[in-house]
Write a structure and sequence with these properties.
globular, alpha+beta
Length: about 110
């Protein structure tokens, strides 16, 4: 199976990728690189988003190593479809898309209540 399409990897610096791979295990499920290699699989690099300023919502991502299954899961949106951006996929799953989406959700809730 080909690696998961991931926009985070397009601007990844080699030193950030190396740092993410140092632990030799998946950041989410902790399967080791050795265990993956037995099945012909490798660790893949993705990002993990952090909020650095809660007042502005400014965020940043750091490189993490994921097994292929966890990487694929990280890129699934609320509809179970692949999104090349892990942040958009997560926001879709958690209903924290953009302010307009949240406003739409709240308005729908008020109409139903």
């Amino acid at each position: 199976m080909p690696p998961t399409e991931c926009r985070f990897q397009k601007n990844l610096k080699p030193e950030d990728a190396a740092a993410a791979l140092e632990a030799d295990r998946c950041h989410n499920c902790s399967i080791t690189l050795g265990e993956l290699l037995k099945d012909g699989k490798f660790l893949e690099i993705c990002g993990e988003e952090y909020i650095s300023d809660l007042t502005t919502g400014q965020d940043y991502s750091v490189a993490i190593a994921l097994c292929p299954d966890c990487h694929r899961q990280a890129h699934l949106d609320a509809g179970g479809n692949h999104s090349p951006c892990h942040v958009n996929a997560r926001r879709s799953r958690e209903w924290i898309d953009w302010p307009e989406k949240e406003a739409d959700r709240l308005a729908a809730h008020e109409r139903s209540g």
